[in-house]
């Protein structure tokens, strides 16, 4: 974790966001029977009911992970069950995400929501139903928070004419004049759909050449509190990250925020060039690097045709020779795959997969899906190594060439899978993407991840999950459903991450009810009954893999939610100073949520250990947490660099968080150093994250910011990492030369 910071950090202001529970899914998912026996919900839980106050109450309960209580929304459901009736993994997985809650924190419980509901439950059979009146309908939405409190996601007391919070800060309190309690459910549904249409119109990104068609939208009023007139409205974030309304999935091209120079107040003392971390090719276009004479990539350069996948040299072994290998080598390749690849994406049943591969080689490789899967597993098993330097799999080695032979043989069979609907096809497509990521072919990998996601769209569990008439508790998960959920989630998150990094198009579906965004947490497999000698090796590996898998997904959701909140603020505040002030108030809460996530990890994945003791799974989680710290500190680092470049003063609070941000960039390089020479699925993301951090450190030093001690060492280490991999990615040559040149210039300034 980043170094601890002094206790004199800025205290949360009056606008600090109310505490949100960031880990409901991780808390419940890690309590499944396949991880550590039947999960037990704590019977404690004080506080008031939903929507009436704070505390854990009936809306928020707690689960225990390795003895540590973690708050979560599923605990209420667990405590509501009769004694001895355990919650099914699917019921926990399909429970509502914390992002899908109403602004006032209400959750649909199973009990009555109004006095009329309670009366209806106690009504005798045959009694005339209550009349259709105002009291008949649930009053759940009668009290709606004002727009200021809704934007901050805090409780509103709905006082008239202005709520207490707006009075205390001097804000304009805008409350809905409509009493929704008198509307029937159908009317409320219609109003919801109208609100959704208005939201889509407000945030629509205009197509090129469609300015005339979009002209009528200028009649829409600006967002309250934005400080913009009808002639000066904040433009849509056409180059920003956008998020699914269903849960925060990223599907934008870039993290840079649209230029607001024409809308900023001339007296604004801050100039925030970007709100979220940018890609390396964008950072290389900063003014600090414009005079370096380095080759720069335009944003469209990633859209150029990628290099063809290299073919093995003529002297390499043939496929027939590799297939005719002894059983010991087959077992070794399988062990490599399940130990070093499958542990991060557990999409297969290890016992069944091993049997399928062995049968394929014993019966002879044919054109069946099983043979295709066996060849891909062997290709990955060839280049998979323990965490640490992977010199034996460098480009041109015999091991690397063997993996290419296996992979190309699999690709000759994979076209047949595109006209099948079984799970093996989706697994082959996804694992092909994993292989291409490991050999630094991200564009081709994205194609396979997209195809894998498309192959999952007709899985039976998706249809059942979208059937609103089906009780979640009544849905039972089998082994097949578990594998379908796993490959669906893996393909979904891999495609999202890669598309964002490569600036590739999003095939967006505007309907918020689309099954594209997974509306559930993947359900772990049910562990078999333990033998007297304890769990077998395969069960232990499956448990460890699923613990990592669920922890990574939960962190991704937290990252998406914090990103979306920051972009929502950007839309509301044209002034960079006002935006920074709002972010300053929220920073203590953001830091606390990230640390709560890290504290909730089980002992096997705990990152409260020395970096030198990390395995691949722990290293990946540590790196992703550092990425999230980098994200929340990014606006302050950008503000500090801009202010120092313009010789303007910096607020002490901004300077403090900018200092933490620069320390995080140093820490990014430090925590990833053990994996600098390790080939794995996320090598490309690690390389780009460290390169971004090194460039930010150089830009800050050139601007005159107060730099952390030994920051140059982090840049030197990044240069060495780029030199190691530059034979496999031509972009790394230009990045390395830029770092070397800029570091030399910075040392002489």
Automatic annotation (TrEMBL):
Q: Where is the Zn(2)-C6 fungal-type domain?
A: 145-175
GO BP, sorted A to Z: DNA-templated transcription
Pfam families linked: Fungal_trans (PF04082), Zn_clus (PF00172)
Q: Which GO molecular function entries does the Swiss-Prot or TrEMBL record give?
A: DNA binding; DNA-binding transcription factor activity, RNA polymerase II-specific; zinc ion binding
Q: Where is the composition biased (Pro residues)?
A: 1-13
Q: Which protein is depicted? A: Zn(2)-C6 fungal-type domain-containing protein
Residue spans of biased composition, Low complexity class: 252-262
Which regions are flagged for Gly residues bias?
Answer: 42-60
Q: Which residues form the signal peptide?
A: none
């Amino acid at each position: 974790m980043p170094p601890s910071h002094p206790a004199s950090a800025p205290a949360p202001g009056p606008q600090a966001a109310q505490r949100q529970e960031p880990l409901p899914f991780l808390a419940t998912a890690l309590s499944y029977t396949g991880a550590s026996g039947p999960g037990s919900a704590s019977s404690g839980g004080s506080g008031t009911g939903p929507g009436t106050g704070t505390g854990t109450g009936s809306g928020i309960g707690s689960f225990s992970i390795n003895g540590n209580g973690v708050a979560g929304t599923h605990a209420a459901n667990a405590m509501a069950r009769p004694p001895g009736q355990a919650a099914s993994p699917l019921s926990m997985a399909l429970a509502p995400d914390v992002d899908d809650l109403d602004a006032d924190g209400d959750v649909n419980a199973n009990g009555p929501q109004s006095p009329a509901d309670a009366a209806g439950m106690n009504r005798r059979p045959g009694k005339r139903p209550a009349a259709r009146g105002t009291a008949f309908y649930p009053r759940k939405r009668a009290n709606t928070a004002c727009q200021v409190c809704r934007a901050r996601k805090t409780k509103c007391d709905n006082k008239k004419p202005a709520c207490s919070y707006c009075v205390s800060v001097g804000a304009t309190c805008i409350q809905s004049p409509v009493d929704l309690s008198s509307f029937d459910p159908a009317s409320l549904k219609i109003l919801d759909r109208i609100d959704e249409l208005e939201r889509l119109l407000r945030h629509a990104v205009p197509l090129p050449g469609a300015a005339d068609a979009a002209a009528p939208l200028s009649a829409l009023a600006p967002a309250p509190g934005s400080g913009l007139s009808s002639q000066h409205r904040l433009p849509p974030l056409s180059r920003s990250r956008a998020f699914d309304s269903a849960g925060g999935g990223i599907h934008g091209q870039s993290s840079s925020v649209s230029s607001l120079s024409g809308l900023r107040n001339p007296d604004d003392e801050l100039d925030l060039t970007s709100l979220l971390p940018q890609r390396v090719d964008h950072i290389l276009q900063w003014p600090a690097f414009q005079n370096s004479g380095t080759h720069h990539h335009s944003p469209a350069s990633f859209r150029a045709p990628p290099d063809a996948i290299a073919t093995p040299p003529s002297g390499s072994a043939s496929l027939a020779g590799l297939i005719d290998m002894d059983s010991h080598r087959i077992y070794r390749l399988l062990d490599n795959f399940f130990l070093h690849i499958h542990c991060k994406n557990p999409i297969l049943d290890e016992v069944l997969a091993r049997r399928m591969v062995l049968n394929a080689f014993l019966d002879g490789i044919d054109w069946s899906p099983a043979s295709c899967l066996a060849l891909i597993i062997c290709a990955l098993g060839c280049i998979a190594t323990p965490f640490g330097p992977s010199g034996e799999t460098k480009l041109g080695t015999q091991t690397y060439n063997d993996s290419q032979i296996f992979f190309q043989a699999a690709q000759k069979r994979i076209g047949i899978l595109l006209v099948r609907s079984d799970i093996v096809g989706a697994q082959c497509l996804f694992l092909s993407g994993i292989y291409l990521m490991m050999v630094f072919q991200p564009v081709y990998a994205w194609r396979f991840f997209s195809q894998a996601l498309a192959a999952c769209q007709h899985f039976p569990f998706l249809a059942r999950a979208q059937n609103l008439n089906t009780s979640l508790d009544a849905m039972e998960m089998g082994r097949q459903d578990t594998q379908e959920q796993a490959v669906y989630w893996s393909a979904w998150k891999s495609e999202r991450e890669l598309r964002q990094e490569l600036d590739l198009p999003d095939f967006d579906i505007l309907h918020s009810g689309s099954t594209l965004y997974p509306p559930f947490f993947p359900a772990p497999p049910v562990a078999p009954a333990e033998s007297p000698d304890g769990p077998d090796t395969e069960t232990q590996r499956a448990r460890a893999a699923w613990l990592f898998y669920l922890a990574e997904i939960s962190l991704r959701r937290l990252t998406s939610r914090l990103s979306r909140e920051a972009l929502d603020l950007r839309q509301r505040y044209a002034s960079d100073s006002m935006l920074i002030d709002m972010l300053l108030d929220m920073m203590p809460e953001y830091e606390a949520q990230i640390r709560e996530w890290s504290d909730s990890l089980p002992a096997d994945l705990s990152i409260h250990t020395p970096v030198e003791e990390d395995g691949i799974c722990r290293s990946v989680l540590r790196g992703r947490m550092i990425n999230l710290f980098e994200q929340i500190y990014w606006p302050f680092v950008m503000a500090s660099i801009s202010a120092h470049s313009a010789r303007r003063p910096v607020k002490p609070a901004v300077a403090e968080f900018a200092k933490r941000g620069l320390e995080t960039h140093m820490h990014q390089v430090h925590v990833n150093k053990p994996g600098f020479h390790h080939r794995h699925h996320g090598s490309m993301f690690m390389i780009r994250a460290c390169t971004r951090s090194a460039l930010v450190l150089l830009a800050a030093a050139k601007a005159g910011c107060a730099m952390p001690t030994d920051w140059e060492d982090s840049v030197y280490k990044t240069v060495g990492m780029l030199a190691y991999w530059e034979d496999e990615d031509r972009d790394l040559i230009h990045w390395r030369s830029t770092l070397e040149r800029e570091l030399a210039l910075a040392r002489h300034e």
